[in-house]
TrEMBL record:
It comes from the Bacteria. This is Alpha/beta hydrolase. Keywords: Hydrolase. InterPro entries: AB_hydrolase_fold. SUPFAM superfamilies: alpha/beta-Hydrolases (SSF53474). One of its GO terms (molecular function) is hydrolase activity.
Length: 85
């Protein structure tokens, strides 16, 4: 299973699609630059069903974005929550 994560996000795709479709809770993807963990191919798949206003791309950071820029991540999360409350 771990190896599969390097070629896609098999356990994330369907639940993410359902969250977006249900529109019951705020969803905001905050992603860093493409990496072996979240490839460009996965990002292109997300582009097909995640509205652009629900995806924030921070190309200065990698897949450890919450550890690399915790304050920025927190700011973006609070901004999203304030818009939807």
């Amino acid at each position: 299973q771990e190896l599969a994560n390097y070629f896609g996000t098999p356990l994330i795709m369907k639940p993410l699609q359902q969250l977006i479709a249900d529109n019951k809770v705020p969803v905001q993807l905050i992603i860093g630059k493409p990496s072996m963990f979240i490839s460009q191919q996965v990002r292109q798949m997300w582009d097909t069903f995640v509205p652009s206003e629900q995806m924030t791309v921070l190309n200065d950071y990698g897949h450890l974005l919450p550890l690399e820029a915790p304050e920025l991540c927190a700011k973006l999360i609070f901004q999203k929550l304030n818009l939807t409350s």
